Amino acid sequence: AGITDPAESGADPADSSRPSAGSDSAASAAAQPAGDVLVAAPLAGRIIPGRVPDPVFSSGTMGMGLGNVPVESTVRSPVSGRLIVLMDSGHAYGIRTDEEAEVLVHVGIDTVDMAGEGFTPRVAKGEWVETGQVLADVDLAAVQAAGHSTATVVVTNTAELKSVTPAPETPWLWLDRRLHEGAVTPASGEAIAAGETAITVTL
Fold first, then answer.
1. Residue 140 in contact with residue 147, Cβ under 8 Å?
2. Residue pLDDT, tens place only, 159-200
3. HSE of 124 in the Cβ direction (CA atoms, 13 Å)?
4. Could you give the 3-state DSSP secondary structure of residue 163?
């Protein structure tokens, strides 16, 4: 099973191709223990207390992740890997790392309804992206004017991984406690910086 956008049943299937390990990921691999993938926050914002306002994400159906209300409009890649999902509407980006961790960045709730208005992708499907590389620019005012939440979520293919846990002192994971007993509800409005390590994935 690959990462897809739950809001659109017509999402492109995940590309089965996988880049070989090499210079693209060598620098990031040296910064963490073997077998771990560090997932960074894609943009700065305020952590959503409890669960994100979407039943598919908050139930854990899509996997474990974090949610925040952004305070900036530039969306950056949380990991280095191949861009295997890029919705035509520009609101969702799926990335597969060399280690087979799959990460979905979903900007806003129900923003697929905007049909691309307010979203400007800066990458193309199939492209290799580096952690921190700009994926898109988003007009947050347009999202709000359309009546949608700007809440942005990042989820992983949890079921296929050994563990998905918050980085030390950053307990921002949300998930149904029946699925992950260690999930912690963060303090309301806790700040998160773009590029800050939010999740550690153990393969």
1. no
2. 888 887 755 444 444 433 333 333 333 344 578 889 988 777
3. 2
4. strand
How many whole angstroms separate alpha carbon 95 and alpha carbon 2? 10
Predicted confidence at residue 142, as pLDDT, reads 95
Measured on CA atoms in the order 112, 177, 42, 45, is the torsion positive or negative? positive
Q: Would residue 91 show up in a list of annotated catalytic residues for this protein?
A: no
Measure CA of the first residue to CA of the last residue in the chain; give whole Å. Answer: 16
Burial of 141 (0-12, 13-18, 19+ CB in 10 A): exposed
SS3 for 130? coil
Which two tokens mark 29? 């691999």
Say how far apart CA 35 and CA 5 lie, in whole Å: 26
| CA contacts within 13 A on the Cβ side of 117 | 12
Which residue in 91, 106, 148, 180 is the catalytic one?
106
Q: Give this prediction's pTM.
A: 0.75
How do residues 58-78 score in pLDDT, each as one tens digit?
A: 777 788 777 888 999 999 999
What is the rounded distance in angstroms from the CA atom of residue 67 to the CA atom of residue 49?
9
